[in-house]
Amino acid sequence: MGIKINIDTADSTEENNIDIKITPDDGGVNLDVIKEETLDYNLNLRSALNGDLMIMDHKDIDIVIQQGNKKIVAFAKDAMTDAVYGAESRLLEFLRKKGVIKIDSIQGGNIYGSLEGTIMESDDFHPISSALINVSEWMETERPYMQGVTAYDDMQDDALTDPDNIDSTDLGDVSQAEEKGSISPRTIFSPAMYGRFSL
Q1: Same structural domain for residues 10 and 72?
Q2: pLDDT above 70 coverage of the chain, percent
Q3: pTM over 0.90
């Protein structure tokens, strides 16, 4: 059983702490100095019953990291559009360039509108942790796009629900008249009266 000891001086900061792992065995005590690096990233992530990690941060797609068969799958969030395919393609291309997924494994999934890639094996790094870190980095590159699309949608909603004076007319500003508009109903052929125009 290993014993973990933190050794630090009185004036040391958290960055200067040294972790020493002492593992006793029959031949004596082995000392291994362990330097750990902490990486902070935020993802809207949840775990499925089978252990798959589901990332829901993106506006257009949901990302699933399947721990069992070491795959990353991107699904359309609502409807399959060109924006969805573009986001899926950008994700897998980013992960391919970072060396997280195999180049020849990128393909369409068995669910309509999904793309998937196989995570590479590694003896030096934990594959799932590496995939999570790189997905988090990709999400940071996508954040300006998502903020722009959200701001545009909000602007469109505001234009419909609270229009400017130029684009709207207050109630009572237009006087009443017997006929309104440019199409006269008297010149429309009536399907209910065979061969006649409506009056």
Answers
A1: no
A2: 72
A3: no
